[in-house]
Amino acid sequence: MTVLDCGGRTLDLGRCRVMGILNVTPDSFSDGGDFFCLDDALAQARAMVDAGAAVIDIGGESTRPGAPAVSAEEEIHRVVPVIEAVHAELSVPISIDTSKPLVMQAAVAAGAGLINDVRALQEEGALEAAAALAVPVCLMHMQGEPRTMQQAPSYDDVVAEVTAFLMQRVRVCEQAGITRQRLLIDPGFGFGKDLNHNLMLMQQLETLVATGLPVLTGVSRKSMIGNILVNKVDQRLFGGLALAALAAWQGSVLIRTHDVGATVDAISVIDAVLKAG
């Protein structure tokens, strides 16, 4: 059983849990601008915890394809007041979705207890910052950069290559003093991957689970669902629940989603089936 100490708050990953997404950005692909106001962001965090979220993931920079870059100062300006407000009112762990060391430091000082990095601590200074902050870290795979990652993603064997990259980053983290017990991994659905790459990763998610590291799965409202069902972002709940159930069935212990209540119900049913007998 994996129990993470997230800045003094416990995240028990002995069974699959839900991470609620809180984007305080004007341009995220699904909810950009919806929670840019502090009061709206806090109300959404409160609603997600009430719906069963075990951790809230707060981000201040969109990583959708084509999104403009945001400075560390602007990102800090967006996320720190929200982290402080959520930390003061709610008791669940808070995750900071960032790749920038300055943002990591400011966020943890404000109350965040987990770093969720789409660049797997490859930005200059990020590895050292994460090691010094001594909170858990989620390492994600991404081919290319958010602005261009979907132009021509290519793999010989997507599952093997994603697994090899993540294991290499785990070794780098361990060498820097970040113990394996503080690490999670995320295959990065939709980050430099076409539909077939994403489907192969979901089909063989057990390969990552077999590493023994906690696996985070983030597929909420993503274009892979739209490509299968030919629908818009606000019509992807049922497809997202199917993928969340598949991930939980294969052993993913953290599902990152916009749709907390429905996802909690889905994985609770999966958990009951897995524990039967």
How are the SSEs ordered, and which strands pair?
Layout: E1 3-6, E2 9-12, E3 17-23, H1 38-50, E4 55-59, H2 72-89, E5 94-97, H3 101-110, E6 114-117, H4 126-133, E7 137-140, H5 158-175, E8 183-186, H6 195-203, H7 206-209, E9 216-218, H8 223-229, H9 237-250, E10 254-257, H10 260-275
Parallel strand pairs: 3-4, 3-10, 4-5, 5-6, 6-7, 7-8, 9-10
Antiparallel strand pairs: 1-2
Helix pairs in contact: 1-2, 2-3, 3-4, 9-10
Describe what this molecule looks like in 3D.
The chain is built from ten helices and ten strands. It has 277 residues and is an alpha/beta fold. It has a single domain (3-272), classed as TIM Barrel. The strands form two sheets. Strands 8-7-6-5-4-3-10-9 form an eight-stranded parallel beta sheet. Strands 1-2 form a two-stranded antiparallel sheet. α1 links the parallel β3 and β4 (55-59). α1 crosses α2 and α2 runs parallel beside α3. The two termini are 19 Å apart. The relative contact order is 0.13.
Keywords:
single chain, 277 residues, alpha/beta, TIM Barrel, eight-stranded parallel β-sheet, two-stranded antiparallel sheet, 10 helices, 10 strands
Percent in helix: 40-55%
Strand line-up in the sheet with most strands:
8-7-6-5-4-3-10-9
Query: What would CATH call the class?
Result: Alpha Beta
Order of helices and strands: EEEHEHEHEHEHEHHEHHEH
Low-confidence stretches: none
Question: What's the N-to-C terminus distance?
Answer: 19 Å
CATH architecture: Alpha-Beta Barrel
Structural class: alpha/beta
Write a compact overview of the structure shown.
This protein has helices spanning 38-50, 72-89, 101-110, 126-133, 158-175, 195-203, 206-209, 223-229, 237-250, 260-275; strands spanning 3-6, 9-12, 17-23, 55-59, 94-97, 114-117, 137-140, 183-186, 216-218, 254-257.
